[in-house]
Amino acid sequence: MGNLPCKIRSRDDSAWKQQNKEMVENPAYSFANLSKGGTLIDAYNNEGPHKVEEIARNEMSKFFYNPDGSAHEISEEEFLLWHWKLQQRIAVSIFTFNMMVG
Questions:
Q1: Cβ atoms of 29 and 22 closer than 8 Å
Q2: Nearest-CA neighbor of 98 among 4, 6, 7, 5?
Q3: Where would I find the H helices in the chain?
């Protein structure tokens, strides 16, 4: 029974490591992060909602389908490709997690 907390702790550690890896690899995480900070949070706290809107228009637009923010309907093919890639990432994460704790 004494070993149980260590095993759980290692699971938590691996989850945090994965989240931190995602934050480094994906620049979108700079806008809001797991420690209640980031560009948008700081802008809202220091300068208010108008600054958040400015950041959304100027800095976040590169993550949109259309830089001007207009709507974009994706095709079924685009959706299926996105869904497949997501499932692959989840499968790799689960496999990696199981290898670390198993």
A1: yes
A2: 7
A3: 4-25, 39-47, 49-58, 76-101
The interaxial angle of helices 76-101 and 4-25, nearest 10 deg, is 140
Token readout for 52 is 């958040």
Res 13: pLDDT: 63
Give the pLDDT mean for 24-44: 84
State the pTM of this model. Answer: 0.51
Query: Structure tokens of 62?
Result: 């590169």
Q: Evaluate the CA torsion angle 51, 56, 57, 60 in order and state its sign.
A: positive
Coil, helix or strand at residue 1: coil
Q: What is the CA radius of gyration of the chain?
A: 19
Residue 75 and residue 67 in contact, taking contact as beta carbons nearer than 8 Å = no
CA gap 74, 78 in Å, rounded: 6
Tokens of 63: 């993550």
